[in-house]
Amino acid sequence: RLLLLTVLLAQHCADAATSIQPHIVTIILDDWGWANWGYHDRLVNNQQLQEEVQTPVMDALAQDGIVLDRLYVHNVCSPSRSAFVTGRNHRHVNLINGPSTLYDPSLPLLGTWGVPAQMTGIAEQLGSAGYATQHVGKWHLGYASRADDSNTLLLPPATARGYDHFFGYIGGGNDHWTYKISKPSNGCCGRASVDLRDDGAPAADNKPAHACGVASQDGCLFEDALFERQVTGAINDHADLNTTQQLFLTWAPHAVHVPLQPIAAQEARFDFIDFPLRRKYAAVVNDIDRRIGRVVSTLKRRGLWDTTLLVVISDNGGPSLFDGGANNYPLRGEKGFNTEGGVRSNAFMAGGFVPQAQRGSVADGLMGIEDFYATFCGVGGVVTLGGAKAAAAGLPPVDSLNMWPYLSGAVEASPRDLVVVSDGHQPQAVIDRLGYKLILGETSSKVFQQIEPVQSSESRKQVRSSGKKAHNRRNFECSACHARRTQD
């Protein structure tokens, strides 16, 4: 009896622990290359990469947390971020990666491109469970969509989708020092305009001096320094409330998106790298690593870390062409391509909410970026996934799966069997849990490399022997998901 009572008590304590709602802090890095993370460089034992890539904070956090080894995203920014916010696969919400000024008044449900307001976002979901919600940094999900068939737009876009407060830029990228949109054609009236907003208004109090720029950094504030200040302020303000309310904070730094404009002193630390773009990229990666470290220190100092679930991911692979400077070795390809280097994301979880038994583990189960939606709802106490508004508007339902039972160790396998990657015309590839990929389409540049299935050599023999059967099944399922997309 005593043994039974002990077991039941232990189970009750475990259940009670998992019933606690965590603070959820998600950091979505921009264009972060697979090999631009020291954790991965040590796995391949590449000495040059280990010297150039310095990410000690994220390395340590991952080693004391859970590495998400098979998280798949879209190959460009906005579709991935749209999937994260809505819990839909990108083909069901947004495949456009264009400027925020795109607008079509003939679209009654959308109006502006991006995430329709009829899709209940993750912040709105968690807000319904009592969370305080904040977004700092890059948005790139379009302006607010129409809530109905009227001509009224919901502004600002982030608060229209459930965030209590937004501070950042609306578009896909701006200048690190002037905060202006990089391309004048994307600005107002053909001019390069400042893209920095505090909720619905321009962030006038943070307007940089006119002389600020890469060549004149004195007295100026690097944009990611500004975002770090906002994130730290949000954490301190929440802690000052001394409330039982939990915090959902999305931090979307500028790093490591072009233009690569590091702080001069930071770049000088990497002057041993001859190639300028690689040197600048390494400097910006190390810079954001340090900033993450300081934010984690703030969470610990303010007593929030023990109940925090920290998630760090990239929205797509790193770019090496043009002005990119990233490295995705040993994965093939880069941002903009459906090869592994374009769609397999650096990712890990950390924080005191991660179960002790799972710390230091690698989760090699299949996962899509849309799965954070149901996962966060699961740990955050959201009873029902929102979909009524979307259904009433004829929009696709949520695709997200709750990964927490798998990630927490309650079950052994990921619930996801397939990840679909599409460019909007048809699913270009289907990836399954065994490592198989079915590739469709006529464009040879949009294909995946075959990675080794995550099994022992004996298991691989069994997988190969069942390959034909798996191919036939995936072909049927891929055709079915394409049919659903076209019906949507």
Which short descriptors sum up this protein?
three-stranded mixed sheet; 33% helix; single chain; globular; alpha/beta; disordered C terminus; 14% strand; Alkaline Phosphatase, subunit A; disordered N terminus; 488 residues
Question: How would you explain this protein's 3D organization?
Answer:
The protein has 16 helices and 16 strands. The protein is an alpha/beta fold and 488 residues long. The strands form three sheets. It has a ten-stranded mixed beta sheet, with helices on both faces. Strands 10-3-13 form a three-stranded mixed beta sheet. Helix 8 runs parallel beside helix 10. It starts with a helix and ends with a helix.
Assign an overall shape.
globular
Please name the CATH topology of the largest domain: Alkaline Phosphatase, subunit A
Average pLDDT works out at: 83
Q: Radius of gyration, rounded? A: 22 Å
Q: How many separate domains make up the residues?
A: 2
Find the CATH superfamily of the largest domain: Alkaline Phosphatase, subunit A
Q: How much strand?
A: 5-15%
Number of helical runs? Answer: 16
